[in-house]
Write a structure and sequence with these properties.
The protein has one domain. It is globular and about 45 Å long. The termini are far apart. It is mostly helical. Helix 2 packs across helix 6 and helix 7 crosses helix 8. About 65% of the residues lie in helices and about 0% in strands. It contains eleven helices and no strands. Pfam families: DUF6633. InterPro entries: DUF6633.
């Protein structure tokens, strides 16, 4: 049987790799209600939010941030790719190495991440990149290497498995409380304030 490239392309288009993680209509509606259109989402989930995700890991794992699959279905796969590329470019600017990751490689790596980890929430991706920049998984030598990032992501997944179980276990010792951050607001409040600010700009 001869396999033409068009056959592969058509099959990929008809069967997204994240179809197993297809979001519910309610999840899509909730995302659009919280963040508006694609531009609204991109303006809220910027790399600046990485620190908030790190300060509030419980909220990062158990909160309402959309998954990569939800972003791809709700706003389009190109938007999901662009958003991951924004995080990668932030690493590019942060890393003190001579050779930066070119845009073409960023797009390819973003597509790989979307394909392999469609179930990860945007907040979890932010947490991963925060830890990557902190040197938790090692450092870059001479260039921002895509394989180093994918290997680091495997390490993050091990952490995620352990941490998410801990945060999802019911706390029977004491009632749940909201612990303020050092800035006086919680991660959830920070997101809400940012959404309100975005909505205010849209109505100006």
């Amino acid at each position: 049987m001869n396999i033409r490239p068009q056959m592969i392309t058509e099959r990929q288009a008809a069967e997204p790799s994240y179809s197993k993680w297809q979001p519910t209509p309610q999840a899509l509606a909730d995302m659009r209600k919280r963040y508006g259109d694609a531009q609204g989402f991109l303006s809220i989930f910027t790399p600046d939010l990485q620190i908030a995700a790190a300060r509030h890991p419980e909220r990062t794992y158990t909160g309402t941030a959309p998954t990569l699959a939800t972003i791809a279905v709700g706003y389009g796969e190109p938007v999901a790719i662009v958003w991951i590329c924004i995080q990668l470019e932030n690493v590019n600017l942060f890393a003190g190495v001579k050779e930066k990751m070119p845009v073409s490689r960023q797009k390819e790596l973003s597509a790989l991440i979307l394909t392999e980890y469609p179930f990860l929430k945007a907040s979890e991706i932010l947490l991963f990149f925060h830890r990557l920049k902190c040197g938790r998984y090692g450092r870059f030598y001479g260039s921002v290497d895509a394989l180093t990032i994918t290997t680091s992501l495997l390490q993050f997944m091990d952490e995620r498995r352990k941490e998410s179980v801990r945060y999802r276990q019911p706390d029977t010792a004491a009632p749940a409380t909201t612990t303020p951050s050092s800035s006086g607001i919680t991660y959830e409040e920070y997101l809400r304030l940012k959404e309100q600010k975005q909505q205010h700009h849209e109505h100006e």
